[in-house]
């Protein structure tokens, strides 16, 4: 069942975070639903601007609707990830998305406020909730690339002003993470001190953590052993997720870790079976491995086992 992120965040706040997972195709969708149902977790499906154009946005929406029918127990939100203003309006007017993210974080503060406010007004008129972003993460996300020097942590005082002036429903904050597989040199560190200051100024308000893939080194090593060439990839310590949740983070975005599973499964299988031309056996392995990764992430986020209480809260059981 598709719900708004607002309902999920109200249930999770201060206790755990909801996993937000990007998908682009059938195999990811099936693995995602299986992993969340098996671990009994509510979740958020994220669709990026790139995913909407990978085949066609209607194709991906149809896959999600089919999965919803196949897994009636599932409770999830459908979220537009890193949308520009035009894409946000398209998603809002489609009637399919329950949540959109307007990312104007690359603009100056006043422009970010103005763009976000326009999107909020359009979304709220249709019952859609809005995530915005303040501060800049480094790395690469869709069409946005920010180097290490250009990354900017979220200013707690500005965060309070931004939320008050825009009316957004949740805020993505920059506290030391980065996008993509090619993280900055060294391990990623969550600035929990900055997060705590933001929470003090916005008590009870849902915060979002982007760029939160952990980049498991075992995955990197297996990919490289099967012919890959990933170097210097580091991620976030997933054991910090629950601490972040206590400080107001209710949504954690995970994309790259899923891509690593995809690459690892395909590289290993094709290396071991160079004669294969049937992609379906590989797809079956990936769906099982992706579901396993999702279930593991939900344990770290604290959302595993929460589905029964969510369904009861929503009056579904």
Question: Going by CATH, what is the homologous superfamily?
Answer: Aldolase class I
User: How is the main sheet built?
Assistant: 8 strands, parallel, barrel
Strand arrangement within the widest β-sheet reads 1-2-3-4-5-8-10-11
Number of helices: 13
Average pLDDT taken over every residue: 91
Radius of gyration: 19 Å
| Form type | globular
Give me the CATH architecture, please. Answer: Alpha-Beta Barrel
Number of domains: 1
Q: Pairing-aware structural class of the strands and helices?
A: alpha/beta
How much beta, percentage-wise? 15-25%
Distance from first to last alpha carbon = 12 Å
CATH topology grouping = TIM Barrel
Q: Roughly how much helix do the residues carry, as a percent range?
A: 40-55%
CATH class: Alpha Beta
The helix/strand order is HEHEHHEHEHEEEHEEHEHHEHHH
Number of strands: 11
Detail the poorly predicted runs. 139-150, 179-186
Cofactor: Zn(2+)
Protein name: Fructose-bisphosphate aldolase
Keywords: Lyase, Metal-binding, Zinc
GO molecular function: fructose-bisphosphate aldolase activity; zinc ion binding
